[in-house]
Structures are given as C-alpha cells and as structure tokens.
Amino acid sequence: MSDFLEPREGLTSTGRYLSPQIDATVRLNANESPHSPLVGSSIIEQSDMNRYPDRDARILREAIAEHHALSVNQVFAANGSNEVIQTFLLAYGGPERSVMIFSPTYVMHSKIAAITGTPVIDLKREKDFGLNVDFVCEQIEKEKPSLIFLCSPNNPTGISDPEELPERILESLRTYKGILFVDEAYGEFASSSYVSLISEECPLVVSRTFSKAWGLAGLRLGYLLGPSRCIEEVANVSLPYHLGTITQSVAVNALKDSRSVENQVDDIIKERNRIGEALKNLAVEVWPSETNFILFRPINMNATEVWEKLVSNSVLIRDFSKIEGLNGCLRVTIGTKTENNIFIEALEEILK
Predict the structure, then answer these.
(1) H or E element, residue 150
(2) DSSP 75-97
(3) 306 or 38, greater pLDDT
C-alpha cells in the first residue's frame, strides 16, 4: 500500500487546541460565563429549518452594528471569534505576508496563522506581561508586518495593553500598508475598548465574541468590526450559509437584553476583585486582571501538582505551567460565588 499524501508544509507542528474537558463539579478552566441566558425554545420552533439561513446574516449584523453605533457594512459575523480570525487571515494573510503577535497571548492567533500559511513574527512580552510602546513601534517599523495582532485584554495573562498602544501602532501604519487586528474577546470586562477608533479611513479591525460576557459559548458566535472595505473582503472568502439560522436568531434575541449582560458583567467583576484579594492572602503570585479570569503562580509548590490536587477535589482550572513565558502559572475563571468559594477553600487547603 502506498504512503498517504502528507499535509502541506507547516501544518504538522501546529497541533490541535488543547484545553482538558474533564468532568468536574466546579469547572473554572475555559473562561465561560457562570450565567446561562434564557433564549427560549420558541426561536427554534419559529425557524424555517428546512431552508438555508440568511446568507448575509443581515438582521444580526444590523443588531450588532446598532449595539456598537456602527453601520451594518462594518460588521462581519461568524462561528466564534476563531472563525473570524481564520476568515480574516484567509483574506489578508498568506505566505507573502506576515503577522506580528506578542506572546504569551491567545495561542490560536499563531495556530490559525500557520494554518493559513502566514509567517509569524513573535515578539515577547515583558516579565510583567506588559508591552513597551516604544519598543513595539520600533519593531513594527523595522519588520513592517502586514498584520499586527493585539489581544487586549490579553489572554491568558488578563492584562490590558497600554491605552496609547493602538493609536501609536496606527501612526506607524501610516508609513506602509498594514492592518491592526485587536482581539477584544474580553472587552466587556475591561475599562477601555478600541471600537471607538474604527473608521472608514483607519486600518483597524476589532473582534468580539458572544462566548464570554454574553454567556453563549455553546452558540459559537463571534464578529468583526472594521472599515466596510475590509469587512467586504473578509465576507467574500467566507463559506456560503456558514452561520446557522438558530445562531442568528438567538444572538438577535440576546442583543435585545444587553442591560442584563451588563449587570452580569458587573457581578463577575465584583467576584473577580474578591477572588483576587483572596489569592493575595495565599502563597501565590497574582497578576491584575481586566477579564473574567485571574492568572496566578504558586510560590512554594509545583503548579501541575496544585492543578492535579484541585482536580481530585473536583475543581478544574487551567494549567499553563509548561507554556513558554508562563512557567509555573495557573489560570482560574471567575464562576458563581459558590464555585469561587469552593475553589479558594480547596486551594488554601492544598497550599498548606
């Protein structure tokens, strides 16, 4: 039997996205919302499931545009922000171009770049996971990457980048043609956003998701905001009918009750601050967060051992301890008050 054809060059080293899905009573590993919205079974009953969905997702895009005070032509929607990233890179990436990232950051930025054949320029963050604005701009002007990816607030560190950084990067992009992509998956939890910088003349796009603050991770819906010319090019390379009828309907329904989401975000931020203070009283190093999770590092104990002991207590968090730049680090999602208390009590006992 002849050998199978190998996948194209550059794919074998990317691997799959791995986040352990372990059965646990308290699941605080995937940055999901502890709140599940009531979307109603009537949406499914009222949908013409024998028909293809609205190919342009017009009603959904109009609702998203209204939510952000933009025009419908400045919105592209897809199955989660990962499909947004992939479709954007299909349109604007490729072997003849490059994308600059700042690690440690969201791993799918580099993985999807590899899948689309886009070379990655990987700049390392400071020891405190921050970014030096002058250094970043110097490297951009030196390397001239076609695309620049910022994750702000950053995942998995939880830290927002300096507020002036996007505007400084956009100044650098005046000297050559490039696009700044800001991933705001956790934007609702942060004190600032870069959506207000979007204009028809500005080479800036911003991605958002319904998976975090909106509590709709199971729906798989993300979207891209940017100049209409960019949105049109991204839409041109998307698959036809890629966004299902139910997904569109549920999201439109959710957008009608954005006030409830804002209240839930406020509750999560209060819990985040409470858990952050509780962690400071334990033998761990804690980083500030503007997301719905907290990164920390056990001081006197192996991080993987701590993670395993938490799992044995039916508490699941994320182990980043073997990832470059995140040595010894663990990340916990903010859950319900009860879940958070169970986590803190279990961690306190383990660290003793």
Answers:
(1) strand 147-151
(2) EEEESHHHHHHHHHHHHH-STTS
(3) 306
Q: What are the C-alpha distances in Å from 310 to residues 24, 343, 350?
A: 10, 8, 8
Query: What span, in angstroms and rounded, lies between the C-alpha atoms of 262 and 258?
Result: 6
Q: Do 183 and 81 meet the contact criterion of CB atoms below 8 Å apart?
A: yes
Q: Do 325 and 103 contact (CB within 8 A), yes or no?
A: yes
pLDDT tens per residue, range 236-276? 999 999 999 999 999 999 999 999 999 999 999 999 999 99
pLDDT at 206 over 90: yes
Q: Mind listing the pLDDT tens digit for each residue in 319-334?
A: 999 999 999 999 999 9
Q: How many CB atoms lie within 10 A of CB 162?
A: 15
Beta-strand relationship, 26-27 and 315-316 = parallel
SS percent in the chain: helix, strand, coil, step 5: 40, 15, 45
Instruction: Determine the Cα–Cα distance for residues 267 and 128; give it in Å rounded to an integer.
Output: 27
Beta-ladder partners of 165 = none
Q: Would you say 185 and 217 are in contact if contact means Cβ atoms under 8 Å apart? A: no
Please give the model's pTM, rounded to 2 decimal places: 0.94
Q: Which fold has domain 47-257?
A: Aspartate Aminotransferase; domain 2 (3.40.640)
How many CB atoms neighbour CB 258 within 10 A? 14
Who has greater pLDDT, 206 or 10? 206
**Residue 78, exposed/middle/buried by CB under 10 A (0-12, 13-18, 19+)?**
buried
Q: What is the band of 8 on the pLDDT scale with cuts at 50, 70, 90?
A: confident
Q: Is the peptide bond before 153 cis (omega within 30 degrees of 0)?
A: yes
Asked if residue 5 has pLDDT above 90, the reply is no
Report pLDDT digits (tens) over 212-226: 999 999 999 999 999
Task: Give me the architecture of the 26-35+259-351 domain, per CATH.
Answer: Alpha-Beta Complex (3.90)
Kindly write down the DSSP assignment for every residue of 260-323, as one continuous string: HHHHHHHHHHHHHHHHHHHHHTSSEEE---SSSEEEEEESSS-HHHHHHHHHHTTEE-EE-TTS
Domain segments of the chain as ranges: 26-35+259-351, 47-257
d(CA 316, CA 309): 10
